[in-house]
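name: query_chain
kind: protein
chains: 1
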Amino acid sequence: MNIIALCKNHGFAEAYLLPLVEYEDWTRLRDEGAFHHATAGLAGDMRQAYPWAKSVLLMIWRYFPVGRGRAFAATTVPPTPNYLASHKSYQALKVVREELETAGIRTEGAKIPLKLVAAKGGVGTILKNTMLAIAPYGSRVVLQALMVDAELDIRNEALGMHSSPLTPQSSLPCAKCHACEKACPFGAIDGDGYHFEKCIRSYMGGAVMEEWVMEGLPGLLGCDGCQDVCPMNARLPKRELTKEEREAFALDKLLAGISPLSVSPTSPLKEGGMDDALALVGKNQKARMQTQAIVLAGKSDNPAYLPALQRLAESEDEAIRRAAQWAIGRG
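structure:
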């Protein structure tokens, strides 16, 4: 089995088998609180966490930014393209894993610091905004990985393996570029680097949102501001939303998915509710998508959403209720 070809056949742009490494400095910084709490479950010592594994299968899924930046019609609020790509890559990962297991290769989901693994392996370079840039894809990539018991053996070219990391890329000109610093309205990036505690993405997890987060919410499921202006992405072509995406992320359809009673019974977009959107980004995004759709309905200043917001303001769910009350109050 050619493992690399298998990954590419299922949509990944690139795939690499990399050696197991221990990242003591990263683990120390993580334990000192230098990184977002989401890194708590990641293993800095891969050999200790996965003693049976022989290599890391790192897969690269590329995607393109959506045309017109984040300035979409007030009636449609698609997510940042990363979330659409992330779900597609996850589905592809499951197929790759199934085929590897069928071929007798043991696998396990890799709970490791993927961007660090990619950078240390010479696959890409971590930028000032902590995004990973890989030529020629820029930072518009999603990383997926599996721990595997496949050996790194340069003598067996039929396996399609890399026996050693790629040659590290030269340093990117982040030190002389301040585009992302200027673009971030929250001051999350400065001369000292990235500060996760100031990044709005750190506060978009589905829980009750603070007022400054709701006021600054740039779109559904994330913020792409720093990637939009990054010179590493300047030459990437843009794509338009598909008909399926436009319909799935229609605001009244999302509101109907939160509460069927929150929209007019005659609404042509009520059918399906939030299911179509979740099919494109994953069911695990439901909680955050609910509250953010409410906030964006309020920020649209469209009076047609007011009845829905008024009903949702009485929800028993605190995050939904607070978001709806804020959305109504700003009018």
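note: Residues 81-102 form the longest helix (22 residues).
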